[in-house]
Amino acid sequence: MGNLLKSELFKLRKDRSLRTLIIIIMASAIFYPTLIFFDNGADSATVNDFYSGTGLSGNDYIVKLVPCILAGFFISSEYSIGTMKSIGASGNNRIRIYFAKLMAFSIGAVIISLVFPIIILAASTILFGTNDLPALDYFIQTMGLTILYAAAFSSIMSLFSIIFTDSGKTIGFLIIFFLLSDSILYVLSQKFSLIETIFNYSVFKLFLDISKVDLSNGAFLKILLVPIITWIVFGLVGSFIFQKKEIK
């Protein structure tokens, strides 16, 4: 398992799509506060506004959509170029192969999820000063939960990546899926009590609450455990499908 994970992490470091996505996100995070600074001046906003508002709310789309592109190139493309067949024929257990790839991909998704809020925090601090910085415990809480939810979403992306085994189909489906999933689940939850319960305990809904400071102990426990359980469940389902899948 250790050698498999090292191999996947090496491929992740060399993945051009990951580097390109990170550069684009960093440029966006720097450009936005810079534009506000030169248009409206240093007194037009605070660092906390940029972090809790733009940094976290804007990161919602980044966490759900940008890793979809990485999934297509990092996982699905290995079927078309024959890499997955070689790995499968290496004698390693398929469950270990899948979880090694899932863990490496989850790390890539986590890196993507942290870039925008951290860079926008740093850029806005340089431009607008250190007044009204977000509290340290709030920063740690939001970044820690962002890591968990990015990993949870990556487990869902990995599952569909091995089902489609084509980078184009995977990227297209995942982007549409994550764009529409919140709305579809919300509409269905208004009509079916079972769907409402599932939606209320899903990563899709709870991810929107990570920026809330005044979470009760019960609410915080729920928002903490759901992404962990989601990663494990979808990881097990994905490994089962991968174990039964014919690799051509």
Describe the structure.
This protein has 248 residues and is mainly α. The chain has one domain (2-244). The protein is 83% helix and 0% strand. It has ten helices and no strands. It has helices at 2-14, 16-40, 47-80, 83-88, 94-128, 136-164, 167-189, 193-200, 203-206, 217-244. Helix 2 runs antiparallel to helix 3 (47-80), helix 5 crosses helix 10 (217-244) and helix 6 packs parallel to helix 10 (217-244). The longest helix is centred in the middle third of the chain and has 35 residues, at 94-128. The protein is globular, with a radius of gyration of 19 Å. The mean pLDDT is 87.
Straight-line N-to-C gap:
23 Å
Structural class comes to mainly alpha
Rg is 19 Å
Beta-strand content? under 5%
Pfam family, one: ABC2_membrane_4
Keywords: Membrane, Transmembrane, Transmembrane helix
Protein name: ABC transporter permease
Outline:
With 248 residues, the chain is mainly α. Helices cover 83% and strands 0% of the residues.
